[in-house]
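User: structure tokens for this one?
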Amino acid sequence: MAGGIAHDFNNILAAILGNINLLTMTAQLDERQRLLLERAEKACVRAKSLTQQLLTFSKGGAPLKKTVKIDEAIKECAEFVVTGSGVNIDFFTEDDLWLIDVDLDQISQVIQNIIINAKEAMNNQGNIIVRLRNMPNYRPVKLKEPRDWVAIEIKDTGPGIAKDMIASIFEPYFTTKETGSGLGLAICHSIIMKHNGFIEVETEEGRGSLFRVLLPRSDELYSEDADKTILKEDRVKKGRILIVDDELMIRTVAKEMLAYLGHEAHVASTTQDAISIFERHLKTGSPFDCVITDLTMPGDAGGLQLKDMLLQIDPDIKIIVASGYSNDPIMANYKEHGFFFVLTKPFKMQELDIA
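Assistant:
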């Protein structure tokens, strides 16, 4: 049920976010209009992260990891959470911060939940310090051997946590709030464990709390987010792309986004239509360079089966899988299932830029 709700909600968000992205590309926008659209875009991205909380405890939930330098994403998330409150937030990061392999949406949930707890503990006033630093050759208590970590430390000036409660704060439904669900820190713990990380807590009653999120250093030397934020016509490689999705609003906005990026986009609503269109273009000498298919289409074969059929027709075709079911094991291990790339709905223009 959680997965179904998240899938449907992410489809709606994909249409909203895609249209906002397209509108921001309009040259006639004044500064205020552009600012309002940027705020709306950020709100959509935050709404996407909320749907991930529905999936955290559901079956699967493997992170969709990519190699990143995490400082900008953490800063944006932290500042967003305290916007409109009386809480002051300071952000510090090492210049040579190591790369890590993470699911940015899931890690953003962790930071968001910890900062929300700190903000509420301080009654929406006080100070929070967020510090990112490398921790080489460090051994958490539950680990036998030391290793290299990137630490995200969040320190507040709240009342602290009573000693007899520290052991219970990560348990589901444990809360000291009258209106709290008790799931926030439990979700954090679940996510970090799936990233092979740890959360440490240092606290003293009356002197605030420090949460330290430890994430393993990546073996990769290159960030997958590098140089992907600029959209210019001269870097767009024009291609012919087939979009397969049962939702009309997704097909419509994805087609317009791809057209803006310089591609020739075609759409299909079923696997049968997709096969028919794909074969027709192949026979007429205008084959597709890429196919973007939804993973799950009610009453239809779905993206996995479509991928197998298309590869039988053209073994060299690049197939990208897209879904709002971000916790599906196929999404987390798309290469092992024969897909070229993966898109998590809702996706922004930059993520759809597959040139």
